[in-house]
Amino acid sequence: MLALQRFKFLIFSVSVALGLSVVCAVFAESEDAQIVHANGFGNYLLGMTFTEVSRVAELDITSTEGYVEGDCASFNIGPLDDPDVRFLFQNGQLALIDVYLAGAKTPAKVGVGSGYEEIFQVYGGMVKPVPGHYGGHQIFVKIAESENSYRFTFDEKNTPAVLVRIATDQDVGLIEGCF
Predict the structure, then answer these.
(1) Complete DSSP assignment for 18-62
(2) What is the CATH number of the domain that holds 122?
(3) Which range of residues forms the domain containing residue 119?
(4) Is the separation of the CB atoms in 12 and 22 below 8 Å?
(5) Is the pTM of this model over 0.90?
(6) Each residue of 108-123: pLDDT tens digit?
């Protein structure tokens, strides 16, 4: 176990020095770590506190790139302008998770890199397409028997999804931070 911790620290140290993402150190432990499920992403669960997310990430999440504005806080794993994962907190609790990490999928096996039509085929009547706020396209998927939803974001309708968001139904449509 100690060797694994040293390995993670080495990856983190090299990544910071080279300006690369630390996600390989944080999410490399299992295939389950890249599942965007009804309650979160891997071991990150909606409703967690800063401390709980930091414990799972094995780093102080508040020391990563991000911002705090009143009761709203956003922290990234990866560079601010091109993160792999973004955590948004409201009133100290994890409210939504944006996953940009290639290969991240829902349990239905669609996610970052999946096509627009593929997501429609998998989720059928649970899909609600909406125009993107800044252009592009989005698909909202209400998760059955849950208070949460997915949001898939596409730069263009005929390009692969660049983002999978998991959030409560009320927060899934947030545009800028907590607004």
Answers:
(1) HT--SHHHHHTT-GGGGBEETTEETTEETT-BHHHHHHHHTS-GG
(2) 2.60.460
(3) 2-168
(4) yes
(5) no
(6) 999 999 999 999 999 9
